[in-house]
Design goal:
Blueprint lengths: L5 H14 L3 H8 L3 H18 L19 E10 L7 H4 E2 L4 E11 L5 E8 L4 H8 L8 E3 L14 E2 L12 H25 L2 H4 L9 H17 L1
Parallel strand pairs: 1-5, 5-6
Antiparallel strand pairs: 1-3, 2-3, 3-4
Helix pairs in contact: 1-3, 2-3
Length: about 230
């Protein structure tokens, strides 16, 4: 028989994601065994994902022309991990200067709801992550991404990225103005990343096995969407 009622078990799981303290410290708060906390977290995660109430709309929604969304924003968020014992180079991100897991976030500008996530090792370039994710957009959808997605216009015509400064050169006033206008729209990306990284499990060095990282980040994104729908 479970020592905690279902509401408390959900609260334990949320507390683990939000604070990302060790199982030991959380077990002391609830006066249960450390192994019990581990079992509770995994069981509740499985129940939530199987319920489909926190599932993301998915990539197929990006091909639907009947959706209200006309502008899609896309960016890559990086979560630090502990230095792996093997294949360290695969996880090393030159941008962050540490070992990371990358998460590609695709969401609608109008609603702010996250449509889909994709994950890769820290060394993978943002544009390669995009190609590996096989995300496709309806031809009428406008897409805005950062400088890491240079070349996306060859795949999707209605896509825009900031103009990169040429080597040993300068941007013109028109190019700077274009980048400013684009950045005013892209600021929504930083707000989404901040809301996701409020859950410390995505912002602190990830200690667990990487297999459940995608499941947990998808559930957190689902909670973000659920809050917007209230």
């Amino acid at each position: 028989r479970a020592k905690l009622i279902i509401e408390d078990r959900i609260l334990v799981t949320l507390q683990y994601w939000r604070e990302y303290r060790s199982y030991f410290h959380i077990s002391k708060d609830w006066k249960i065994a450390e192994s019990t906390v581990c079992r509770i977290v995994k069981k509740i995660e499985n129940i939530l994902i199987q319920s489909r109430k926190f599932s993301l709309p998915g990539k197929k929604k990006l091909l639907d022309s009947s959706e209200d969304e006309k502008l899609i924003l896309m960016d890559v968020m990086e979560s630090p991990i502990e230095r792996p014992k093997k294949h360290q180079k695969r996880f090393y991100s030159g941008k962050q200067g540490e070992h990371t897991l990358k998460t590609q976030v695709v969401f609608g500008q109008k609603t702010g709801k996250i449509i889909c996530l994709d994950h890769e090792k820290g060394r993978i370039h943002d544009f390669k992550l995009f190609k590996n994710s096989k995300v496709k957009f309806h031809k009428l959808l406008k897409v805005i991404a950062d400088k890491g997605y240079q070349g996306i216009t060859k795949i999707h015509e209605l896509s825009k990225t900031p103009i990169k400064k040429p080597r040993k050169g300068k941007l013109t006033k028109e190019q700077k103005q274009y980048n400013r206008q684009l950045n005013r729209l892209r600021i929504a990306v930083e707000h989404i990343n901040r809301r996701l990284k409020i859950f410390k499990i995505l912002s602190y060095p990830y200690r667990n096995r990487h297999k459940r990282f995608g499941l947990r980040s998808n559930l957190i994104a689902g909670i973000h969407n659920y809050e917007l729908a209230l």
